[in-house]
Amino acid sequence: MIDYQFKVTHETTSSGPLFWWSQPRKTLIITARVPGSVPPIPTGEAGVNLIPSLAPSALTRPLSSEVTTSRGSMFAVDSFFCGNLPLDTVTTVPVPPLTWGVRGVNIESVNAPFDVQLIDNTNPSSPVTLATLAVSSFPSNTPLVRQDNYNGRASSIRVISNPSVEINGAPATVQGCFTEPGTSQPGLDPGALLIRVDPGTSVQEGNEGDNELSF
Hints:
The protein is mostly beta strands and 215 residues long. The protein folds into 2 domains: 2-34, no CATH class; 49-214, no CATH class. Helix content is 0%, strand content 41%. It contains no helices and 16 strands. It has a 4-stranded antiparallel beta sheet, with no helix packed on it. Strands 3-7-10 form a 3-stranded antiparallel beta sheet, with no helix packed on it. It is elongated, with a radius of gyration of 31 Å. It starts with a strand and ends with a strand. Mean pLDDT is 84; it is low at 1-45.
């Protein structure tokens, strides 16, 4: 329900048809209650909202199950890494940074330090924190704090485009971008990642339901 007030001024006399007032002029305030919805009032610290931030980037995570070939096992990866590469030639390619963090609304009202976590969520029942970004405050007029990568992340990847191999004894050219067959490359991105903002709820927010981003 919404309350409205109307101020009505009437000229009246003691014999007037509507009001039995002897004064020459009266002001009547009428309060009306009508059905309706009250606009939401921001809660928390002056409507503060902290939201995960992720810059677009190619990830090195495997996109397929293991492919067993005569040259060893390999995995499909993002075609970004094989752009303009010669076919069937192993090439070392730099990996672009993974830039992640937090953006905020009404950052001037953030009055407590908080953390942002980058999590390996491949096994949701046993998540592993890869990196933690500690935010003491937002820079002036800058509602964004981010950092690059996490410890142990590969800075390059060895790939091959459309490799010619044998699978089950039969020659085959496999279309796509793959890791170098027969190698184990440490530091490739996990299959599921998660950014979690303010896991300790240090900052009271108007909306606590958007503090995670899975990718």
